[in-house]
Amino acid sequence: MCKFFNTDGYCDAEANYMVDLSGRLAEIKRMVDAGKYFTINKARQYGKTTTLIALADDLKEDYAVISLDFQGFSHADFESEQSFCAAFSREVLDVPEELPDSVRKRLEVCAAGTLREVTLSVLFRILSDLCKSSSKGIVLIIDEVDSATNNQIFIDFLSQLRYYYLRRKRTRTFQSVILAGVYDVRSVKHKIRPDQEHKENSPWNIASDFLVDMSFSAEEIAAMLKEYEADYGTGMNIRQIAELIYAYTSGYPYLVSRLCKLMDERVAGSAAFPGKADAWTEEGFYEAEKMLVKEDNTLYQSLIRKLKLYPELRSVLYELLFTGKTIPYTATNDYMKDAAMFGFIKNDHDTAVISNRIYETVLYNYFLADEFAESKMYNAGLQDRNQFIVGGYLDMKRVLEKFVETFDALYGDQDETFLEETGRRYFLLFLKPIINGAGSYSVEAQTRNKERMDLVIHYRREQYVVELKIWRGNAYHERGEKQLSDYLEYFHLKKGYMLSFNFNKKKKIGVKEIRIGDKTLIEAVV
Length: 526
Description:
Blueprint: H1 22-33, E1 37-41, H2 48-59, E2 64-69, H3 81-94, H4 101-112, H5 120-133, E3 138-143, H6 152-166, E4 176-181, H7 189-192, H8 196-199, H9 218-232, H10 238-249, H11 253-267, H12 276-279, H13 282-294, H14 298-309, H15 311-323, H16 334-341, E5 345-348, E6 351-354, H17 357-369, H18 376-383, E7 389-390, E8 393-394, H19 396-411, H20 416-435, E9 439-443, E10 452-459, E11 462-470, H21 474-491, E12 495-501, E13 510-516, E14 519-525
């Protein structure tokens, strides 16, 4: 059977092309060997389940593993201690580990759910006896603990785990406990009881820090592609494609696999990319990236739900995207923790930044979509879009000329504050309907700040670099021209574009063309 890239459920090394997890598993096993209790908190579809399944298999030589998934528990299973103990006991009985007869019989009594005197303390005495009778240390792994974090029974379950952990020098208990999910169960107490006492009193404060990096490096992606290339012989530049995938995903496991799957199954075989050799190219990658940012997958749906549930989080992300405001990464800030926990942002040298380019574009599109219906700039781009496509190619100079004309007519008398907060957003609104369907854009992360933002636009196999900047005088402007020229060198382009928002009352709006060395710069001023 041929392997394939998988984005539906967990990955299996025998059936799927996937990154080698052995290094991560070795790091996690060292924590298990040390008797650590810990959580694996990562955003949705970050490879948690795949890692846990591989880990359980990896540990079996040295440990007895009880691996459960709370997603299989129903709401009714958390209604009482009796129902929870019954559901938990049934799960343990289904685990393919040898159970002593005495322990099995007691678990079967609990699993029947008929005795009211079956409580968490009774269940844990049975589990403690199981640990005592086992010739190997027992590792308890529970996936999808999010399913239970709003339930008091689960809080009491964590308390029992902590109780036995603290007594383990006197009473044998689990060698290690691993809980996995999106939410950090070390802070679940405040989700149940919002008063200050319980907010600071987590039942999972015994958990060790989990510092294993679960994102994929460019080198790991290249190794996966090398296996694919051995099967199909596309002639791809493995290093180039791996670095492109990493540059746009920052190694987010689902996004990595999804891009590969799109290139393999959707780009290859299309009219523009008839064979796999055509798809596994730089142009094929950008076609897959365009598909990815436009689709409505379950990962994006989860992100958007979080924005609706957490309006303060929405405000922080909006600031990061459109104003270029520098926001310090503060681990103790609740909204910062939430944004990182859900995968929206990451810590980059103590500054909060959007996690990856794919998310960034998806978020731009989401925020801009709220304005499409009533935006005069969007409507202007939509009405005039045909004039910007010449011979199938994007006429970016004409785009800038029309934007300057439209922006000046609509907002030319606005003040500096207005321009700083809305200028780049209005350009994206104008650009969106022009490239929609055939093109895409991304923001170069290292240039996104209050005074400068570089867009890279991809349209029918062509690239266009546009620098959006705030005018800060001639000297600053000349440095910007040099920066853009250097940037074009990086992209192997001869022509670049600059859009300056100028607050000078005596400014001369319009578009001009200048030469710097062998580069042509099209400069627009509004």
